[in-house]
Amino acid sequence: MKAKLLTFRTLTPLHVGSGTSVSYIDLPIARERHTDYPVIPGSGIKGVIRDVAKREEEGNPCSVENVFGPEPGSKELHASLAAFTDAKILFYPVRSLRGVFALITSPYVLRRFAEDMRSAMGFNKILGDLPDVSDKCIHIHPNDSLLEFNRHVVLEEFRFDVVRNVGVFTALKSEPFKAFLTDEDIKRIAIVSDNVFRDMVKYAVEVRTRIQIDQTTGTAKGKALFSLEMVPAEAIFYSFVFTKSLNNGSSCDDKKAMEFIEEILPDDSVLQVGGDETVGLGFVKVKTYPPPSETKSAGGEDKGLSNGTTAEVKDE
Fold first, then answer.
1. DSSP states of 177-213 as a string?
2. Strand partners, 84
3. Cα–Cα distances in Å, from 200 out to 189, 234, 286?
4. Measured between alpha carbons, how far is 197 from 176 in angstroms, rounded to an integer?
5. Is 239:6 a contact under the CB 8 Å cutoff?
6. Among 39-53, 204-218, 288-302, where is mean pLDDT lowest?
7. Is 189 exposed, middle or buried (0-12, 13-18, 19+ CB in 10 A)?
8. Nearest to 135 by CA among 161, 111, 116
9. What is the phi/psi pair of residue 280, to 5°?
10. N- to C-terminal Cα separation, the chain
11. Three-class secondary structure of residue 262 per DSSP
């Protein structure tokens, strides 16, 4: 199997709905059951990329049906060559007294990303040892733009004591992070405790109240008021795409399927994910790692990644 990392940076607020209302929010966002973290289901990612692939299919040895599976109602019955995982949150934007906003993460979130990178792509110790962070403290870059009077950081309505952390932020400047993080991003990053992170992603969301317009009168329709929950712009999610070969006589194998996906997802591609497309929600910028230029050598063979591994997963 071939594997590739996909990161999604929200350019506009994102609403991937859960379909159920459990509180005062009529249309909440999809969340992981055990953490309450926002998530983008892999089925939604696959569907959006499939739509893009339909426009890029001509002249490619792999068809959309081979890579993404047959259309509903098709007479062909076979699994798709590509599998997309749910996109998990990695950095979440919150308001800051200094520097406008911060990109927060937590030790658990970073450890989970490191473990996912090890399992999916063979990376080992991309972050080293992560510190324990108390609920009252925050770890920041030595040259962070979030500091208030050189002593505290204020995020949303909460003030945190500062710990300057060199090791973790040095690692954030190396692979694979440098593929999707800029120097400006790193100055905004703040590592908070797991408890604080959970509370922030649960309550520091964007909520809009909307109405329905009566198409006959052009005025607000009675009893049609509803609230919509959204992930703010600048959030960063990550996902993986895996490709495999099938013994169905097709000339499209795992390598060609991954090349097909690389062609339809050039670096900095912009996709629209989730609901409310017509009001501008859900635009995300996609980056891939390793990028296509690093995946292939001049002869077309797979190159090793920077840590000596390859983006290949062996079946046990």
1. GGGT--HHHHHHEEE--HHHHHHHHHHS-EEEEE--B
2. 241
3. 14, 15, 24
4. 23
5. yes
6. 288-302
7. buried
8. 161
9. 85, 15
10. 11
11. helix
11: phi > 0 → left, psi -120 to 50 → alpha, else beta; which?
A: alpha
- The per-residue pLDDT for 296 is 52
Residue owning tokens 């109405």: 211
What is the Cα 120 distance to its own chain's centre?
Answer: 15
Please name each of the domains of the chain with its CATH number: 1-16+42-85+233-316 (3.30.70), 87-204 (no CATH)
DSSP 3-state of 252: coil
**What is the Cα gyration radius of the chain?**
21
Q: What is the pLDDT at residue 44?
A: 92
C-alpha dihedral sign at 104, 117, 307, 292: negative
β-bridge pairing 82-84 and 236-243? antiparallel
Token code pair at residue 188: 């905004």
Give tens-digit pLDDT for 89-101.
Answer: 999 999 999 889 9
Strand partners, 230: 206
Conformation bin of residue 313: beta by default, left when phi > 0, alpha when psi is -120 to 50: beta
